[in-house]
Design a protein that fits this description.
This protein is an alpha/beta fold. It folds into 2 domains: 191 residues, 3-Layer(bba) Sandwich (FAD/NAD(P)-binding domain); 122 residues, 3-Layer(bba) Sandwich (FAD/NAD(P)-binding domain), CATH 3.50.50. It is elongated.
């Protein structure tokens, strides 16, 4: 028989939302269990310098996540290196199966599985991730002051990133494989009016190139989609802005979603369409996608889970009294 682990609150995911939920749930004496998932620490583990986390002028992304994990453990959250593979949402307590074979049984669930930036899938892109290749302009744009930057994409994300990067870069080249953008017209107007931005139509990125010592981007090679001609564009930063995908594999066929798969929560709440299931962080946030907002939602989820469990426990007494 599979090993069972019972908990009042199971937190699935270990980014800022998950660890913050762990801190608050532990302080509420709920003895939470946090299952870290496939990528412990989430997207911040692939970010080098973080300069927009309050209280730290500069901190390494992996270090920040290690500190959050340590904080959660220190206040009593049990952190488990495992992966939840399926959840039975049909009844409470919720039964969650894991890759290790352990069966987690929880009275309430906090889902904080995050989102993943969509990448091009190039070997050279992977090589320079965190060393000139990024998927977050607000996270990393600051490091390219006075430099030339290339952005790839054609939707709102790409245009917003390109516009934001003009605050730092001397020039931004937007590479798009078609001859028109999918972004909202108002964003396109701003883009085309910005003297720092050049748009390169009918091109796709074929390779990122740079130095090995120290590791860093020197430019990208782009291919014309019609002629196949290769052009080199010198740059110090390359931003992939082809969208994000919420890590919703556990819930996409069960919970209500919108905006390309992000979990829907009730207004001003982290409560989902299933009582006792809460969602926090990038799994539900298609708008901000920042560590600080994810942490805030993790706090909300833990407080709401505590309230839900308290009301759930008092319900039988009320019914008996009636």
């Amino acid at each position: 028989m599979a090993e069972q682990k019972k908990t009042r609150v199971l937190i699935v995911g270990s980014g800022p939302a998950g660890y913050t939920a762990g801190v608050y749930a532990a302080r509420a004496m709920l003895e939470p269990v946090l299952v870290q998932g496939l990528e412990p620490g989430g997207q911040l583990t692939t970010t080098t310098e973080v300069e927009n986390w309050p209280g730290d002028t500069e901190v390494q992304g992996p270090e920040l996540m290690m500190r959050m994990e340590a904080h959660a453990k220190a206040v009593g959250c049990e952190v488990v290196h495992d992966i939840i593979s399926s959840v039975d949402f049909s009844k409470r307590p919720f039964v969650c199966q894991s890759d290790s074979g352990t069966e987690y049984i929880a009275d309430a669930l906090i889902l904080a599985t995050g989102a993943r930036a969509k990448w091009l899938g190039l070997e050279s892109e992977e090589k320079y991730k965190g060393f000139g290749v990024s998927a977050c302009a607000t996270c990393d744009g600051f490091f390219y002051r006075g430099e030339e930057i290339v952005v790839v994409g054609g939707g709102n994300t790409a245009v917003e990133e390109a516009l934001f990067l003009t605050n730092f870069a001397s020039k931004v080249t937007l590479v798009h494989r078609r001859d028109e953008l999918r972004a909202e017209k108002i964003l396109q107007d701003r883009l085309f009016k910005n003297p720092k931005i050049e748009t390169l139509w009918f091109h796709e990125v074929a390779e990122v190139y740079g130095n090995d010592t120290p590791l860093g981007v020197e430019g990208v090679k782009v291919k014309h989609t019609q002629t196949g001609e290769i052009t080199e564009i010198p740059c110090k930063g390359f931003f992939v802005a082809i969208g994000h995908a919420p890590a919703n594999e556990l819930v996409k066929d069960v919970l209500e979603t919108h905006m390309g798969g992000y979990v829907v929560t009730q207004p001003d709440s982290t409560a989902t369409s299933i009582p006792g299931v809460f969602a926090a962080g990038d799994l539900t946030d298609h708008k901000y996608r920042q560590a600080i907002t994810s942490a805030g939602m993790g706090c909300m989820a833990a407080l709401e889970a505590e309230r839900f469990l308290a009301e759930d426990e008092s319900a039988p007494e009320v019914q008996a009294a009636e």
